[in-house]
Amino acid sequence: MSQKIFVSAKEVADRAGVSRSAVSRTFTPGASVSAETRRRVLEAAEALGYHVNHLARGLMRNESGLVCLIVSEMDTPYRASLIRAISRHLQNASKIAMLINTDRSDRSVDEALKLAISYRADASIVLSGMPEKSITDLCVKSGQRLVLINRDEERAGALMINLRDQEAARQAFIAFQRAGCRSFAFANSDVGTPSLMAREEGFCAAGREFGVDVIVERFGATRYQSGVVLAQRLLTREVRPDAIFCANDLLACGLMDTARHQFKLAVPDDLCVVGFDDIEQTSWSSYQLTTFAQPVDRIAEEAVLWLSQPMTDSGRFCRMTPDLVWRESVRGG
Amino acid sequence: MSQKIFVSAKEVADRAGVSRSAVSRTFTPGASVSAETRRRVLEAAEALGYHVNHLARGLMRNESGLVCLIVSEMDTPYRASLIRAISRHLQNASKIAMLINTDRSDRSVDEALKLAISYRADASIVLSGMPEKSITDLCVKSGQRLVLINRDEERAGALMINLRDQEAARQAFIAFQRAGCRSFAFANSDVGTPSLMAREEGFCAAGREFGVDVIVERFGATRYQSGVVLAQRLLTREVRPDAIFCANDLLACGLMDTARHQFKLAVPDDLCVVGFDDIEQTSWSSYQLTTFAQPVDRIAEEAVLWLSQPMTDSGRFCRMTPDLVWRESVRGG
DNA sequence: ACGGATGTTGCACTCGCTTGCAAAAAGAGG
DNA sequence: CCTCTTTTTGCAAGCGAGTGCAACATCCGT
Fold first, then answer.
1. Cβ of A31 less than 7 A from strand C
2. What does the buried/exposed string (b/e) look like for B176-201 if buried means 16 or more CB atoms within 10 Å of the residue's CB?
3. Fold match between A65-163+296-320 and A165-294?
4. Which residue in A has a C-alpha nearest to residue B56's C-alpha?
5. What CATH topology corresponds to B64-162+296-321?
6. Best mutation site among B119, B279, B312 for testing chain A: the one with the most A CBs within 10 Å?
7. Contact flag, residue B56 CB and nucleic strand C, below 7 A
8. Is the CB atom of residue B305 positioned under 7 angstroms from any atom of strand D?
9. Cβ(A115)–Cβ(B94) below 8 Å
10. CA separation (Å) from B307 to A108, A261, B198?
């Protein structure tokens, strides 16, 4: 359809009166070219608007410079900020992010990875969904690096970045106790993502540890609207919880808003809330939510670092600790 | 560094006992292959885990399937949702998004476009910043399609998608008047993006049209925190405005929160607010902001459509009308 | 059985680039 | 000035695919 007419190394070579190899070497760091030749090549390249064809280069070098980002619900604040951080770090490492949206189904993560293979991506970073083992094996076998973020299922040869969700949950529990709360609840989505379940599990475990009952309610996706529903369910119980740990900040925002506007409860006086992620909105004055900060930048850094390291068969676990950011949604602090 | 060992068409051919061309044809829609050959090829491909190398294919076809998305502050709600919509539409058109972050400087948009050329992207979509004319010319000359969203400066050969910002601003003004407001203000960022300036201009023009003064205040980036500052400046004036049109929703959120919490003003009783973008947060019950909805999905659709159309030299303007979404931040409605 | 139409297949060239190798040029040392 | 070493340079062979062309096979009608 389109007539793309990019200028090629041959044309630059002709104009500069040198061989095609000379042009190639000029644009290959560390190759042997005399200063004079380089000058003439660069001049010709500039005049013609030449840019090395990375596709062809990747073909030869067997290294495309492309890294595949596999994400669903990428407009969600936490995801968006992670994408941003990763893309920044990738660019610093002279790589470039290919974005693949997997909103449709779970199978589409597999499709995405196949696409990554087709484009000979140097690596894939999975932010959501969990790929089939057969596919990840194919990736690793093909020499493609694989990073799984917050997926928590083992895959040979991959880097798995996870947070200490359970410990964080315990910490939240203790914070609630210090604030004098008596009735504890966990507000979760019902998608069952491992990291969300780990938070739930950790919170319940803390309840058992301290001999306190914990109510668990699950509903919908990890979005604001689910938080609304969760609030309605939790706050209409005969013993109304006065401490709710939300699986993530979006839920917490929906829950807080509903608690305040629909149930006329004061946060933190009548109800303490803790969230997870530390999305930007939690710092807005309508929320001032106490929450656990995902170390987004460090996650991105770690992921990108892994891409440039020699491949190991075993894979690697990387666990990070989320920091508890104290704001106003829990008494005391 | 990494030893990538992808399986090639040659290996598949060998295993299936056919020529390499047969393999190629099997994966080329519309090519002539017998059912039997196709079957054997597909079988061998499956067994070996073969996937066509899109880079090599792109090299031959002179069509990479890559589309470059050039964005800054991509974790901002509006940007994120636009990115999501575009990536979805691209995937439907069997293309794939390369994400380039231009947070650093304005010059980096040019760098990004050069990168796009290097990767022989079929097109580039610019969501932020404005590239040099020389660079866009190079893109168009190279046969690369170019889409500029909300940029509002003319570039030959490109598709320029814009909203009717001025008309929207006028509509906001009228809504304020209907609500009985008496003192009007426009809260803007000071980055001077054309679309933001158009909204300001449209609002001021409406003021002149109706013979009413309009206060304009500009500060910072188009973010929540700037909204806070703008509120502090606007709401401490001797004649306090009771109608504020914000250049975008993030500003509006910051401004509303500050008006309520710091100045103890009731929205919409003491102060009416209108925003722009219709980001998700505006529907949260803490805000219920009346705002103009960017037709994100239609923008994405239009952009992607353009990519598959034959190239014209002239370029094309596409103006869309944002819908006013009535919520609770303006009386009446 | 034969001529012709139709459908498949493989050869070989091409896309734009990198790189090993050997020839040519430049520099060093006597 | 000649020889030996070090750069620099061009040639040509890839990388993994697509495709025009000609050869071949298949099938049909007569």
1. yes
2. beebebebbbbbbbeeebebbbbbbb
3. yes
4. A59
5. Rossmann fold (3.40.50)
6. B119
7. yes
8. no
9. no
10. 24, 46, 27
H or E segment to which residue A161 belongs: strand A159-163
Q: Strands B145-149 and B159-163, how do they pair?
A: parallel
> Is residue B262 scored above 70 in pLDDT?
yes
Mutate to test the interface with A, among B71, B145, B284, B305 (most CBs of A within 10 A): B284
Q: Do A114 and B51 touch (CB under 8 A)?
A: yes
pLDDT band at A52 (very low <50, low <70, confident <90, very high): very high
Cα distance between residue B41 and residue B47, in whole Å: 10
Beta carbon of A23 within 7 Å of strand D? no
Q: How far apart are CA B255 and CA B230, in angstroms?
A: 7
**A73: chain B residues, CB-CB within 8 Å:** 84
ω into B310 cis (within 30 of 0): no
- The CATH class that applies to domain A165-294 reads alpha beta
At position A280, the amino acid (one-letter code) is E
- Look at residue B105 and tell me whether its pLDDT is greater than 80: no
CB B107 within 7 Å, strand D? no
* Between residues A312 and B171, the one the model is more confident about: B171
- Position B3 scores a pLDDT of 67
Q: How far is the CA of B280 from the C1' of D6 (A)?
A: 66
Q: Which residue of chain A comes nearest to B4, CA vs CA?
A: A143
Span CA (A34) to C1' (D10), Å: 14
Question: Hey, where are the domains in chain A?
Answer: 9-52, 65-163+296-320, 165-294
Q: How does DSSP classify residue B284? A: S
Q: What three-state secondary structure class fits A310?
A: coil
Q: Is a pLDDT exceeding 50 seen at residue A1? A: no
- What's the CA–C1' distance between B45 and C10, in Å? 20
Q: Is residue A253's pLDDT more than 90?
A: yes
Closest partner CB to A55 (pick from B59, B76, B79):
B59
Note the CA–C1' distance, B32 to C4, in angstroms.
21
Q: Does any strand D atom come closer than 7 Å to the Cβ of B120?
A: no
Which nucleotide lies nearest residue A21, CA to C1'?
Answer: D10
Average pLDDT, chain A: 93
pLDDT higher than threshold 80 for residue B313: no
Who has greater pLDDT, B56 or A153? Answer: B56
Residue A2 in this model has a pLDDT that exceeds 70: no
Tokens of B305: 């459509």
The structure tokens listed for A63 are 């290294």
For A99-145, the pLDDT digits (tens) are 999 988 767 888 888 889 999 999 999 998 778 888 888 888 888 89
| pLDDT number for residue B1 | 45
Looking at the predicted structure, is the pLDDT value of residue A3 above 70?
no
**Integer Cα distance of B91 and B84 in angstroms:** 11
Distance to chain A for B24, nearest Cα, Å: 14
Contacts of B224 (CB under 8 A, 6+ apart): A280, A284, B250, B251, B253, B254, B257
Q: Give the mean pLDDT of A173-177.
A: 97
Q: How confident is the prediction for chain B on average, in pLDDT?
A: 93
Look at residue A225 and tell me whether its pLDDT is greater than 90: yes
Mean pLDDT of A265-281: 97
Q: At the topology level of CATH, where does B9-52 sit?
A: 434 Repressor (Amino-terminal Domain) (1.10.260)
| CATH superfamily entry for domain A65-163+296-320 | Response regulator (3.40.50.2300)
